[in-house]
Amino acid sequence: MIATHSRVVLQRTMKRWASWAAIAALSLLTACASAPSRSPSSSDPQSSLIPAATLQSWNDGPSRRAIIEFVRAVTQPGSPDFVAVDERIAVFDNDGTLWSEQPLYFQVLFALDQVRAMAPAHPEWKTKPPFQAVLRNDQKALAKLTIRDLMQIIAATQTGMDSEQYTRQVKDWMATARHPRFQVPYRSMTFTPMRELLDYLRAHDFKTYIVSGGDVAFMRAWAQQAYGIPPEQVIGSSFVVTYETRDGKPRLMRQPKLEFNDDGPGKPVAIQHFIGRRPIFAFGNSDGDLQMLQWTAAGEGRRFAGLVHHTDATREWAYDRQSKIGRLDKALDEARRQGWTIVDMEKEWSRVYGF
Length: 355
Description:
Elements: H1 4-11, H2 28-31, H3 62-75, E1 89-92, H4 106-118, H5 131-136, H6 139-143, H7 147-158, H8 163-176, H9 192-203, E2 207-215, H10 216-220, H11 223-227, E3 234-246, E4 249-260, H12 266-274, E5 281-284, H13 290-297, E6 304-309, H14 330-338, E7 341-344, H15 345-348
Parallel strand pairs: 1-2, 1-5, 2-3, 5-6, 6-7
Antiparallel strand pairs: 3-4
Helix pairs in contact: 4-7
């Protein structure tokens, strides 16, 4: 059972439980196949123009122009805002920033599916709340589940096993589960414009990181295939993991106790702890990302802070200040005061997903 303190901390973390999407991003070489051969290195004054072609899912609006101008300014030699390659750190929230997060954080949906999959080994769940509501698919009861209920479900289905077993379960779920609205694999629900942005930054020698409130082990199971971000560049919340020897083999066991909450003020702390450099570029979508954006923007020299604003109820969802999932309220006000980039999804993205 997760300790009371952990449950309170996790209540602020619920912005981040999520799942994956494996859509092949357009490569720089493919996008530029018709252009003269040129290496897009930071020493080339034209390099900031070549990879911009990969931002094809971005309409020619204020956000796209702000991104291109920022990258040009910090990567072009001779620019007063030039930033050395080692300092080109870009950080991204995951849920709601790199992929969708509705109707629930995808890691919560994974936990609910795990209850159903594990039920034969737990006959007591048939009559035990909150598992009973999941197994009966009782929509009214499910709608009333509290944070404590969800944490009990997550603890029962995602801890008490070794790390390798957990990774296999996540990968299996990603390969078979379907989103309830779009009926596509969760791996199909990454945002095409954001994957293009990741590629664009890396073409200019940025190092890209995920900094999310979601379980770091959950994200590491699929982030490299989905975004091109390796496990060591994924930062997230974490459960306590202990080293044990079972059946003569060393194992890393996931314990039902929260070790670190990577949300809100925890994000800049984690960035300092795991990266050791202040980012010059940061993207989020909710109040849980506010401190990460503030920390990034407060550094010396030119900085970029951006928000994905969910305004497209037809192709995705429209929500902000009143949403229980991915609430964008204080961060939206701060972004407007500070002049940060706010991406209007409906107006500025020509496509959302790859399907």
